[in-house]
Inverse folding.
C-alpha cells in the first residue's frame, strides 16, 4: 500500500498524477490518493468576494481562517472542483475511482478547534467560530471495503469533528495519519517543488535523503520554511509510526509517482 | 428501500430532510438520498462571472448549457457545497453518510451528448462541446456494499460517460433509474411545491393521486409545466419499471419524508 498526497499549490500536473496512479494501479499496486486545493480555493474565494485570511499561530505556523462561508468555499473547491477533476481523470484512464472527503463515512475524524489563537501586532488574540481541527483518527474500515472491492479512493479534507461538524484540516497531516494507520510501504508528499530544499527556493539545493532519526534535527527544521515545515513534521510522525519511507517529490513532472518511488526528491527512511 | 430525491430549487429545508432521513434510518428504514443544486449553481455561476445559459430543445424541454467551465461550477455546487452540507447534517444526527457523485464508482453511467440540438428564433441549431448526457445504467454494486456496511449514500449528479467524462444529467431521471434498479418500495421526488399542481403555481390545485396507467395521459402532461414535466416522465418510467409508488412531495416542511410517505403530495401508484 502506498499513500500519495498531491498538494494544492500552483503548477501541479493532475493529468500526470492520474495517469501515473492508473498505471501503477493496473499493475496491481494498491494505493490511495489524498489531495489539497489551497491555491484554487484562494482564487475562488477572491472571485466570490470573500478573500482568504490566514492566521499566524503563536508557534509560527499559519492556517486558513475558516468561518462558515470560507468552509463552504473550501468544500466547493476541494470536494467539488479538485476531487471530481481527479476522479474524472482516473475514470478516463479506466480506473474506478471513488472520491470522498473526511466527512464521508467519518474517514478523517478529529476535534474541532472552535477558538484559534493567533498573533497580531505582537499580541496573542483569539478567533472564535472557526471550523478547523486536527485529524486524530482515521477510519480505515470504509477504505479497506472500497479497496477490496476494486475502487481507488481519492480523499480530501475537510475532516469531521466528533460532533459531526465539517472541519478544515491539514491535508499532509491527514495523509500522514492515513499512511500510519495502514502501515503503508511509502507515503509520497508531492508538491510544486522537487523536494525539501536547503536553500528555498533554490531547486539545486535539494536534500536527497534524511535519516529518519534526524528528521526532527533542528538543522533540518531550520531549512524547512512555511508549509514545508508541516510536511517535515508529518514525515516525523509517519516514519515513527511505522511507514516504510516518506518521499517529498515533484508533482509538476511526468510520472511523478514512479519518479518519487525511484528516489527522486527527498527520501526520509 | 426508499429513494428520496431532494430538488435544488429555492426554499428546500435541508435540515428537515436530514433530520427526517436520520429518524427513519435509525428506525431501520434503508434509504438513499439523491439531491440537486440548480438554484445555488445559478447564483455561484453569476457571482463567478459565468452566468447560466439554458437551451430549449426541439421537444420543449430545457437544459443547462454545460461547457467545461459550467461543469466545474456545477461540480463545485452539487458535489462540494450541497453534497457535503447534507452529509454534514446527517453526521450531526449520528448517521454515517457517504456523499458520492455519479462519477464515483461509476454509479450513474450514460452516454455523453456532446452535440445538443436547441431552438433559437424558430430555428434548430446545434451546440457542440457540451458535457451533458442521460443516465442509462446505475451501478448498484457499490451502493449495496455501502448500505450493507451501514453507510447512508447521498448521491448527486454529474454522471460519468462511457469514456469517463463527467456529464451533467437530470437528477430526477437518475433517481428514477436508481429506484427502478433497486425495485424500491417508494421513490420520493421532493421540491419546493406540495406536489403536482393542476393550476401551477396555485398550491390549492394539488393533484392527490394519479393511477399509474394514467401517468402518461395527455391531460396530466398538459398540467405539468417546465421541470415538473421531467418529473412526471420520471414517474412513468419508475412505476412501469417496478417501483411501488412515486410521490411528489414538499421539501420545505418539517418531516418532509414521513409526510410524503403518509400520502401528502401527489401519489402515483
Amino acid at each position: 500500500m502506498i499513500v500519495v498526497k498531491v498538494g494544492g499549490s500552483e503548477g501541479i500536473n493532475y493529468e500526470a498524477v492520474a495517469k501515473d496512479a492508473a498505471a501503477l494501479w493496473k499493475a496491481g499496486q494498491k494505493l490511495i490518493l489524498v489531495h489539497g486545493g489551497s491555491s484554487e480555493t484562494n482564487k475562488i474565494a477572491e472571485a466570490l468576494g470573500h478573500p482568504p485570511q490566514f492566521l499566524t499561530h503563536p508557534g509560527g505556523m499559519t492556517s486558513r481562517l475558516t468561518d462558515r462561508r470560507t468552509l463552504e468555499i473550501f468544500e466547493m473547491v476541494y470536494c467539488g472542483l479538485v476531487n471530481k477533476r481527479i476522479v474524472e481523470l482516473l475514470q478516463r484512464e479506466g480506473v474506478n475511482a471513488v472520491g470522498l472527503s473526511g466527512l464521508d463515512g467519518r474517514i478523517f475524524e478529529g476535534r474541532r478547534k472552535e477558538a484559534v489563537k493567533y498573533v497580531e501586532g505582537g499580541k496573542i488574540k483569539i478567533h472564535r467560530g472557526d471550523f478547523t481541527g486536527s485529524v486524530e483518527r482515521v477510519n480505515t474500515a470504509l477504505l479497506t471495503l472500497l479497496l477490496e472491492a476494486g475502487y481507488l479512493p481519492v480523499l480530501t479534507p475537510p475532516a469531521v469533528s466528533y460532533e459531526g461538524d465539517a472541519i478544515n484540516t491539514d491535508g499532509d497531516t491527514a495523509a500522514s495519519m492515513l499512511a500510519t494507520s495502514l502501515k503503508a510501504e511509502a507515503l509520497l508528499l508531492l508538491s510544486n517543488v522537487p523536494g525539501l530544499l536547503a536553500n528555498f527556493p533554490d531547486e539545486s539545493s535539494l536534500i536527497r535523503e534524511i535519516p529518519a532519526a534526524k528528521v526532527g534535527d533542528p538543522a533540518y527544521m531550520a531549512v524547512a520554511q512555511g508549509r514545508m515545515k508541516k510536511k517535515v513534521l508529518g514525515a516525523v510522525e509517519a516514519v515513527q509510526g511505522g511507514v516504510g519511507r516518506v518521499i517529498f517529490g515533484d508533482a509538476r513532472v511526468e510520472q511523478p509517482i514512479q519518479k518519487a518511488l525511484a528516489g527522486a526528491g527527498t527520501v526520509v527512511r
Summary: The CA atoms of residues 144 and 182 of chain B lie 9 Å apart.
